[in-house]
Each structure stands twice: as C-alpha cells, then as structure tokens.
Amino acid sequence: MILLALVTVFICGFATGHIQGKKTSAPKPEVSVHWEEETLSLLKRSLELGPQEQVTVEREIQRAATRIRITRNETILSYHEQISELYGRLIEELDEPNATKLKKEKRSLDEKIQALRPQT
Description:
This protein is mainly alpha-helical. It has one domain (31-116). Helices cover 81% and strands 0% of the residues. The protein contains four helices and no strands. It has helices at residues 2-20, 33-46, 51-93, 96-116. Helix 2 packs antiparallel against helix 3 and helix 3 runs antiparallel to helix 4 (96-116). The radius of gyration is 22 Å and the shape is elongated.
C-alpha cells in the first residue's frame, strides 16, 4: 500500500515535470576565486602575517579549495548514481508505459553520470 502511494506521488511529479517542458539546470555552485580572495582578505585583516606566513596561508587556501572541489564533484556523482539506482528499482515495479518513460530518463541520467566520472 505504501509502495503504491510512493509510486503514485513519483508518477505525478514525473508527469508534472514533463507537462512543464524541458528542465533547465541552475548554475552549479563553484568554489570560486571570490571565496578564496575573501578568505585571504579576512585572514590578512585579522592577522599580522609576515611575507612567508602570507605565502603559507595562500597555499593552504588553494589546497582547501582543491579539496572542496574534489569533494563537491564526488558528492554530485554519488547523488546522480543514487537517483539512477532509484529509477532502476522503480522500473521493475512500474507498468510498461511508465517503465518505458522512466527508462528513457534513466538513460539520460546514466549518460550524465558517465560525463561526471573522472577520466582515467
């Protein structure tokens, strides 16, 4: 009974999305130079940094920004993978017309996942 209710809600949301037309993505938030500059500026104002300390602070800000970007990309990939797995489970439970529609969405999502995976 609960599964039926969840599937009904999902299908309604899915149908509403298609009625509204093509989705446009909001710009992805980035760890920007602006953030890095603000952090450096804040530390310069609040601390009395010598030349070598400033070099160290700048280097550490860059390292933090790199780690944040990596973590962000990993999180986005994981999010999309979880949604794809959800679609896969739902496809098994839905009737053929709905499963076919969801398969199309899943294929599109899986292509996005491939693009997000790090190239080795």
